[in-house]
Amino acid sequence: MGQARCGSSAHRALFLAFIFLFFASSFGYSETSFPPGLKPAVLKIVNLDISQYPTVSCELLLRDYSGNKIPLNGDLTLRLLEDEIPITDFTVETSRMVATILLLDTSGSMLGKMDKVADGVGAYLDLLGPDDRVMLMEFNSWRGYTPVVQDFTNDTELIQNQILKLQPRGQTAVYDAIADASDYFFPKYREASKVIIVLSDGEDNNSVREWFTAIRFAAEHNIRIFFIALGPEADRRTFSQISRETEGETFIAPTTESLPAAYKNISQNIRAKQTILTYTTDEDTTADGRPHYIQVAVYKGATKWVESPLKSFKFRILKTAEQLAADEKAKQERLEAAATSLETAAGASTEATTAVGTPAEEKAPEEEHEAKPSEEKTEGE
Structurally, how many domains does the chain consist of? Predict the structure, then answer.
Protein backbone atom coordinates (compact mmCIF):
# COMPACT_ATOMS: atom_id res chain seq x y z
CA MET A 1 0.00 0.00 0.00
CA GLY A 2 2.84 2.39 0.87
CA GLN A 3 4.59 1.68 -2.42
CA ALA A 4 1.35 2.33 -4.38
CA ARG A 5 0.88 5.67 -2.68
CA CYS A 6 4.51 6.51 -3.36
CA GLY A 7 4.13 5.59 -7.01
CA SER A 8 0.91 7.58 -7.30
CA SER A 9 2.56 10.60 -5.70
CA ALA A 10 5.53 10.33 -8.05
CA HIS A 11 3.25 10.21 -11.11
CA ARG A 12 1.29 13.17 -9.84
CA ALA A 13 4.49 15.14 -9.27
CA LEU A 14 5.72 14.30 -12.79
CA PHE A 15 2.39 15.36 -14.28
CA LEU A 16 2.38 18.67 -12.39
CA ALA A 17 6.01 19.31 -13.39
CA PHE A 18 5.07 18.74 -17.05
CA ILE A 19 2.13 21.16 -16.81
CA PHE A 20 4.34 23.78 -15.13
CA LEU A 21 7.05 23.49 -17.77
CA PHE A 22 4.48 23.70 -20.57
CA PHE A 23 2.93 26.91 -19.30
CA ALA A 24 6.28 28.39 -18.28
CA SER A 25 7.66 27.85 -21.77
CA SER A 26 4.52 29.31 -23.34
CA PHE A 27 4.56 32.41 -21.18
CA GLY A 28 8.29 32.79 -21.65
CA TYR A 29 7.87 32.85 -25.41
CA SER A 30 5.03 35.35 -25.34
CA GLU A 31 6.96 37.73 -23.09
CA THR A 32 10.16 37.72 -25.11
CA SER A 33 8.81 37.47 -28.67
CA PHE A 34 9.45 40.47 -30.91
CA PRO A 35 9.89 41.04 -34.65
CA PRO A 36 12.82 39.15 -36.21
CA GLY A 37 16.04 41.16 -36.13
CA LEU A 38 14.73 43.67 -33.56
CA LYS A 39 15.75 43.54 -29.94
CA PRO A 40 13.34 44.86 -27.29
CA ALA A 41 13.76 48.52 -26.40
CA VAL A 42 12.15 51.41 -24.49
CA LEU A 43 11.37 54.78 -26.09
CA LYS A 44 10.67 57.83 -23.92
CA ILE A 45 9.83 61.47 -24.60
CA VAL A 46 11.74 63.84 -22.28
CA ASN A 47 12.45 67.58 -22.15
CA LEU A 48 9.10 68.44 -23.72
CA ASP A 49 9.23 72.20 -24.32
CA ILE A 50 6.34 74.52 -25.29
CA SER A 51 8.04 77.80 -24.36
CA GLN A 52 7.96 78.79 -28.07
CA TYR A 53 4.32 77.73 -28.54
CA PRO A 54 2.91 76.82 -31.06
CA THR A 55 6.35 75.26 -31.72
CA VAL A 56 6.71 72.09 -29.66
CA SER A 57 10.01 70.28 -29.15
CA CYS A 58 11.12 67.25 -27.19
CA GLU A 59 14.07 64.93 -26.74
CA LEU A 60 13.71 61.24 -27.56
CA LEU A 61 15.52 58.56 -25.58
CA LEU A 62 15.71 55.09 -27.11
CA ARG A 63 17.34 52.50 -24.86
CA ASP A 64 17.65 48.75 -24.78
CA TYR A 65 16.49 46.89 -21.69
CA SER A 66 20.01 47.12 -20.26
CA GLY A 67 19.76 50.92 -20.28
CA ASN A 68 22.15 51.52 -23.18
CA LYS A 69 21.22 54.30 -25.59
CA ILE A 70 20.39 53.35 -29.17
CA PRO A 71 20.94 55.95 -31.92
CA LEU A 72 17.84 56.89 -33.92
CA ASN A 73 19.48 56.72 -37.32
CA GLY A 74 20.26 54.26 -40.10
CA ASP A 75 17.15 52.48 -41.36
CA LEU A 76 14.98 53.57 -38.43
CA THR A 77 12.00 55.87 -39.11
CA LEU A 78 10.07 58.11 -36.73
CA ARG A 79 6.33 58.64 -36.80
CA LEU A 80 4.61 61.32 -34.71
CA LEU A 81 1.01 61.54 -33.48
CA GLU A 82 -0.66 64.45 -31.72
CA ASP A 83 -4.02 63.58 -30.19
CA GLU A 84 -4.05 60.44 -32.39
CA ILE A 85 -3.63 62.52 -35.56
CA PRO A 86 -0.48 61.86 -37.65
CA ILE A 87 1.95 64.81 -37.86
CA THR A 88 4.15 64.53 -40.95
CA ASP A 89 5.80 67.95 -40.86
CA PHE A 90 8.49 67.73 -38.19
CA THR A 91 12.26 68.13 -37.99
CA VAL A 92 14.89 66.08 -36.19
CA GLU A 93 18.18 67.43 -34.84
CA THR A 94 21.03 65.75 -32.99
CA SER A 95 22.11 68.45 -30.56
CA ARG A 96 20.74 71.08 -28.20
CA MET A 97 22.15 73.64 -25.81
CA VAL A 98 22.87 72.07 -22.41
CA ALA A 99 22.36 74.07 -19.20
CA THR A 100 24.00 72.34 -16.23
CA ILE A 101 23.84 73.02 -12.51
CA LEU A 102 26.71 71.45 -10.57
CA LEU A 103 25.62 70.66 -7.01
CA LEU A 104 28.65 69.97 -4.83
CA ASP A 105 28.52 68.42 -1.38
CA THR A 106 30.56 70.68 0.92
CA SER A 107 29.69 68.98 4.20
CA GLY A 108 32.49 68.24 6.68
CA SER A 109 33.27 64.82 5.17
CA MET A 110 34.42 66.54 1.93
CA LEU A 111 37.22 68.42 3.70
CA GLY A 112 40.50 68.09 1.80
CA LYS A 113 38.82 66.81 -1.39
CA MET A 114 38.08 70.04 -3.26
CA ASP A 115 41.22 69.97 -5.40
CA LYS A 116 40.28 66.52 -6.68
CA VAL A 117 36.68 67.66 -7.18
CA ALA A 118 37.93 70.57 -9.31
CA ASP A 119 39.91 68.11 -11.45
CA GLY A 120 36.87 65.88 -11.85
CA VAL A 121 34.57 68.75 -12.82
CA GLY A 122 37.23 69.85 -15.31
CA ALA A 123 36.65 66.65 -17.30
CA TYR A 124 33.01 67.68 -17.72
CA LEU A 125 33.83 71.30 -18.52
CA ASP A 126 36.31 70.26 -21.22
CA LEU A 127 33.43 68.73 -23.20
CA LEU A 128 31.14 71.78 -23.12
CA GLY A 129 29.79 73.09 -26.40
CA PRO A 130 30.14 76.80 -27.31
CA ASP A 131 26.52 77.54 -26.33
CA ASP A 132 26.44 75.45 -23.16
CA ARG A 133 26.25 77.09 -19.74
CA VAL A 134 27.13 75.88 -16.22
CA MET A 135 26.09 77.10 -12.75
CA LEU A 136 27.87 76.10 -9.52
CA MET A 137 26.06 75.60 -6.21
CA GLU A 138 27.16 74.07 -2.90
CA PHE A 139 25.15 72.37 -0.18
CA ASN A 140 25.88 71.47 3.44
CA SER A 141 24.01 72.57 6.58
CA TRP A 142 21.74 75.17 4.98
CA ARG A 143 18.13 74.11 5.52
CA GLY A 144 15.77 75.10 2.72
CA TYR A 145 18.37 77.37 1.11
CA THR A 146 21.23 76.53 -1.24
CA PRO A 147 23.69 79.31 -2.15
CA VAL A 148 24.84 80.00 -5.71
CA VAL A 149 28.63 80.01 -5.89
CA GLN A 150 28.79 80.98 -9.56
CA ASP A 151 25.93 81.95 -11.88
CA PHE A 152 25.57 80.41 -15.35
CA THR A 153 28.71 80.87 -17.40
CA ASN A 154 30.86 79.15 -20.03
CA ASP A 155 34.09 80.28 -18.32
CA THR A 156 35.46 76.89 -17.32
CA GLU A 157 38.51 78.29 -15.50
CA LEU A 158 36.28 80.48 -13.35
CA ILE A 159 34.18 77.47 -12.31
CA GLN A 160 37.23 75.46 -11.27
CA ASN A 161 38.75 78.36 -9.34
CA GLN A 162 35.50 78.83 -7.44
CA ILE A 163 35.51 75.14 -6.46
CA LEU A 164 38.98 75.50 -4.97
CA LYS A 165 37.70 78.29 -2.71
CA LEU A 166 34.95 76.18 -1.14
CA GLN A 167 35.26 75.40 2.59
CA PRO A 168 33.55 72.10 3.57
CA ARG A 169 31.71 72.11 6.90
CA GLY A 170 28.52 70.97 8.54
CA GLN A 171 26.00 68.36 7.42
CA THR A 172 24.33 67.30 4.16
CA ALA A 173 21.08 68.77 2.78
CA VAL A 174 21.06 67.23 -0.70
CA TYR A 175 17.27 67.06 -1.18
CA ASP A 176 16.81 70.75 -0.40
CA ALA A 177 19.65 71.54 -2.80
CA ILE A 178 17.94 69.70 -5.65
CA ALA A 179 14.65 71.51 -5.05
CA ASP A 180 16.38 74.90 -4.87
CA ALA A 181 18.51 74.30 -7.96
CA SER A 182 15.57 73.31 -10.16
CA ASP A 183 14.13 76.83 -10.10
CA TYR A 184 17.22 78.45 -11.58
CA PHE A 185 16.68 77.11 -15.11
CA PHE A 186 13.60 79.27 -15.57
CA PRO A 187 12.82 81.29 -17.52
CA LYS A 188 16.13 81.83 -19.30
CA TYR A 189 17.15 78.22 -19.98
CA ARG A 190 13.79 76.48 -20.25
CA GLU A 191 14.49 75.54 -23.91
CA ALA A 192 17.85 73.92 -23.14
CA SER A 193 18.53 70.35 -22.10
CA LYS A 194 18.38 70.91 -18.33
CA VAL A 195 20.76 68.86 -16.20
CA ILE A 196 21.62 68.77 -12.49
CA ILE A 197 24.77 66.84 -11.50
CA VAL A 198 24.98 66.08 -7.78
CA LEU A 199 28.26 65.01 -6.16
CA SER A 200 28.00 63.61 -2.63
CA ASP A 201 29.96 61.22 -0.45
CA GLY A 202 27.22 60.56 2.12
CA GLU A 203 23.48 60.65 2.70
CA ASP A 204 20.99 63.40 3.37
CA ASN A 205 20.80 64.25 7.07
CA ASN A 206 19.70 67.88 7.13
CA SER A 207 16.97 68.60 4.54
CA VAL A 208 13.50 69.88 5.38
CA ARG A 209 12.10 68.06 2.31
CA GLU A 210 11.80 64.37 1.54
CA TRP A 211 13.50 63.20 -1.66
CA PHE A 212 10.26 62.56 -3.55
CA THR A 213 9.02 66.06 -2.72
CA ALA A 214 12.33 67.63 -3.67
CA ILE A 215 12.36 66.15 -7.17
CA ARG A 216 8.70 66.77 -8.02
CA PHE A 217 9.38 70.04 -9.84
CA ALA A 218 12.36 68.56 -11.69
CA ALA A 219 10.35 65.56 -12.86
CA GLU A 220 7.48 67.76 -14.06
CA HIS A 221 9.75 70.19 -15.92
CA ASN A 222 12.05 67.73 -17.69
CA ILE A 223 15.13 68.34 -15.56
CA ARG A 224 17.40 65.31 -15.61
CA ILE A 225 19.30 64.60 -12.37
CA PHE A 226 22.60 62.72 -12.40
CA PHE A 227 24.47 61.60 -9.30
CA ILE A 228 28.09 60.82 -8.58
CA ALA A 229 28.21 58.66 -5.47
CA LEU A 230 31.68 59.20 -4.04
CA GLY A 231 33.09 56.52 -1.76
CA PRO A 232 31.44 53.67 0.15
CA GLU A 233 29.28 55.86 2.44
CA ALA A 234 27.30 57.51 -0.37
CA ASP A 235 23.57 56.75 -0.37
CA ARG A 236 23.61 54.89 -3.68
CA ARG A 237 20.13 53.45 -3.26
CA THR A 238 18.32 56.78 -2.89
CA PHE A 239 20.55 58.47 -5.47
CA SER A 240 19.70 55.76 -8.00
CA GLN A 241 15.99 56.13 -7.25
CA ILE A 242 16.11 59.88 -7.85
CA SER A 243 18.06 59.55 -11.09
CA ARG A 244 15.65 56.91 -12.43
CA GLU A 245 12.65 59.11 -11.65
CA THR A 246 14.15 62.00 -13.62
CA GLU A 247 15.64 60.11 -16.61
CA GLY A 248 19.16 60.58 -15.25
CA GLU A 249 21.72 58.07 -14.03
CA THR A 250 23.94 57.41 -11.02
CA PHE A 251 27.67 56.84 -11.41
CA ILE A 252 29.89 55.29 -8.76
CA ALA A 253 33.24 56.90 -7.94
CA PRO A 254 35.08 54.67 -5.41
CA THR A 255 37.72 57.36 -4.80
CA THR A 256 38.36 60.97 -5.73
CA GLU A 257 40.73 59.73 -8.45
CA SER A 258 37.64 58.25 -10.15
CA LEU A 259 35.87 61.62 -10.44
CA PRO A 260 37.17 62.67 -13.90
CA ALA A 261 35.92 59.41 -15.42
CA ALA A 262 32.52 59.79 -13.74
CA TYR A 263 32.02 63.36 -14.96
CA LYS A 264 33.18 62.40 -18.45
CA ASN A 265 30.70 59.51 -18.54
CA ILE A 266 27.86 61.87 -17.60
CA SER A 267 28.81 64.25 -20.39
CA GLN A 268 28.83 61.43 -22.91
CA ASN A 269 25.49 60.18 -21.60
CA ILE A 270 23.93 63.61 -22.09
CA ARG A 271 25.35 64.33 -25.52
CA ALA A 272 25.68 61.00 -27.26
CA LYS A 273 22.85 59.96 -29.55
CA GLN A 274 20.65 62.95 -28.79
CA THR A 275 17.51 63.20 -30.88
CA ILE A 276 15.53 66.47 -30.74
CA LEU A 277 12.15 66.45 -32.49
CA THR A 278 10.41 69.76 -33.32
CA TYR A 279 7.07 70.53 -34.94
CA THR A 280 4.40 73.24 -35.01
CA THR A 281 1.06 72.41 -33.44
CA ASP A 282 -2.32 73.78 -34.50
CA GLU A 283 -2.82 76.46 -31.88
CA ASP A 284 -6.47 76.88 -32.85
CA THR A 285 -7.21 73.45 -31.38
CA THR A 286 -4.54 72.97 -28.71
CA ALA A 287 -4.62 76.37 -27.00
CA ASP A 288 -7.67 75.53 -24.92
CA GLY A 289 -6.18 74.83 -21.50
CA ARG A 290 -6.86 71.11 -21.88
CA PRO A 291 -4.18 68.41 -21.90
CA HIS A 292 -3.06 67.28 -25.35
CA TYR A 293 -0.94 64.27 -26.10
CA ILE A 294 1.95 63.40 -28.38
CA GLN A 295 3.34 59.97 -29.10
CA VAL A 296 6.30 58.78 -31.17
CA ALA A 297 6.86 55.37 -32.73
CA VAL A 298 10.04 53.94 -34.22
CA TYR A 299 9.73 51.78 -37.33
CA LYS A 300 12.25 49.58 -39.05
CA GLY A 301 10.96 49.24 -42.57
CA ALA A 302 7.22 48.55 -42.27
CA THR A 303 7.57 47.00 -38.80
CA LYS A 304 6.79 49.04 -35.70
CA TRP A 305 9.65 48.42 -33.30
CA VAL A 306 8.76 50.46 -30.23
CA GLU A 307 6.27 53.15 -29.24
CA SER A 308 6.59 55.78 -26.53
CA PRO A 309 4.02 56.32 -23.79
CA LEU A 310 1.77 59.34 -24.28
CA LYS A 311 3.30 62.65 -23.24
CA SER A 312 0.95 65.51 -22.39
CA PHE A 313 1.18 69.27 -22.68
CA LYS A 314 -1.28 72.10 -22.32
CA PHE A 315 -1.20 75.77 -23.19
CA ARG A 316 -3.62 77.87 -21.21
CA ILE A 317 -5.77 80.13 -23.34
CA LEU A 318 -9.38 80.56 -22.22
CA LYS A 319 -11.97 79.81 -24.88
CA THR A 320 -15.73 80.02 -24.95
CA ALA A 321 -17.86 76.88 -24.92
CA GLU A 322 -18.70 77.50 -28.59
CA GLN A 323 -15.03 77.68 -29.51
CA LEU A 324 -14.25 74.47 -27.62
CA ALA A 325 -17.15 72.67 -29.34
CA ALA A 326 -15.92 73.87 -32.73
CA ASP A 327 -12.40 72.67 -31.91
CA GLU A 328 -13.71 69.23 -30.94
CA LYS A 329 -15.70 69.00 -34.17
CA ALA A 330 -12.65 70.00 -36.22
CA LYS A 331 -10.57 67.34 -34.45
CA GLN A 332 -13.12 64.62 -35.26
CA GLU A 333 -13.20 65.72 -38.90
CA ARG A 334 -9.42 65.45 -39.11
CA LEU A 335 -9.47 61.99 -37.53
CA GLU A 336 -12.12 60.84 -40.02
CA ALA A 337 -10.18 62.34 -42.92
CA ALA A 338 -6.98 60.62 -41.82
CA ALA A 339 -8.78 57.27 -41.50
CA THR A 340 -10.39 57.67 -44.94
CA SER A 341 -7.02 58.54 -46.46
CA LEU A 342 -5.43 55.43 -44.98
CA GLU A 343 -8.28 53.20 -46.22
CA THR A 344 -8.11 54.68 -49.72
CA ALA A 345 -4.35 54.26 -49.92
CA ALA A 346 -4.58 50.68 -48.61
CA GLY A 347 -7.29 49.79 -51.13
CA ALA A 348 -5.35 51.23 -54.04
CA SER A 349 -2.23 49.36 -52.98
CA THR A 350 -4.17 46.08 -52.67
CA GLU A 351 -5.65 46.45 -56.16
CA ALA A 352 -2.26 47.20 -57.66
CA THR A 353 -0.67 44.19 -55.97
CA THR A 354 -3.49 41.80 -56.96
CA ALA A 355 -3.25 42.95 -60.58
CA VAL A 356 0.26 41.48 -60.93
CA GLY A 357 -0.83 38.10 -59.52
CA THR A 358 0.50 38.38 -55.95
CA PRO A 359 -1.92 37.50 -53.12
CA ALA A 360 -2.89 40.67 -51.27
CA GLU A 361 -2.46 39.16 -47.82
CA GLU A 362 1.20 38.37 -48.49
CA LYS A 363 1.95 42.06 -49.08
CA ALA A 364 0.01 43.44 -46.12
CA PRO A 365 3.08 44.71 -44.22
CA GLU A 366 4.29 46.75 -47.20
CA GLU A 367 0.80 48.09 -47.92
CA GLU A 368 0.49 49.23 -44.34
CA HIS A 369 3.87 50.90 -44.63
CA GLU A 370 2.87 52.72 -47.82
CA ALA A 371 -0.44 53.79 -46.40
CA LYS A 372 1.01 55.45 -43.31
CA PRO A 373 2.17 59.08 -43.23
CA SER A 374 5.40 60.28 -44.81
CA GLU A 375 8.56 58.77 -43.26
CA GLU A 376 11.03 61.22 -44.73
CA LYS A 377 11.92 62.77 -41.38
CA THR A 378 14.84 60.91 -39.82
CA GLU A 379 17.67 61.89 -37.53
CA GLY A 380 20.09 62.27 -40.38
CA GLU A 381 18.13 65.09 -41.95
Answer: 2
Side by side, the strands of the sheet bearing 55-64 are: 41-49, 55-64, 276-280, 90-93
Task: Show the DSSP H helices in the chain as ranges.
Answer: 2-32, 114-125, 156-164, 174-182, 211-214, 216-220, 236-245, 259-271, 283-286, 321-355, 364-371
353: containing domain: 320-365
Q: Do 253 and 328 fall into the same domain?
A: no
- Whole-angstrom Cα distance, residue 117 to residue 228? 11
pTM of structure? 0.61
Same domain, 228 and 359: no
Q: Are 236 and 202 in contact (CB under 8 A)?
A: no
- Asked if residue 341 is part of any domain, the answer here is yes
- Any domain includes 23: no
214 inside domain: yes
Considering only CA atoms, which of 307, 176, 222 is closest in space to residue 49? 222
Domain of residue 211, CATH code: 3.40.50.410
pLDDT in tens, the chain (381 residues): 444 444 555 556 555 555 444 443 333 322 334 455 667 889 989 888 887 889 999 889 888 877 777 778 777 899 999 999 999 999 988 778 899 999 999 999 999 999 999 999 999 999 998 899 999 999 998 777 899 999 999 999 999 999 999 999 999 999 999 999 999 999 899 878 899 999 999 999 999 999 999 999 998 888 999 999 999 999 999 999 999 999 899 999 999 999 999 999 999 888 765 788 999 998 888 888 889 999 999 998 888 999 999 999 887 766 667 777 787 888 888 888 888 877 777 776 666 555 544 444 444 444 444 444 444 433 333
Residues 114 and 216 in one domain: yes
Domain assignment present for 111: yes
Q: Which candidate, 353, 349, 354, 381, places its Cα nearest to that of 368?
A: 349
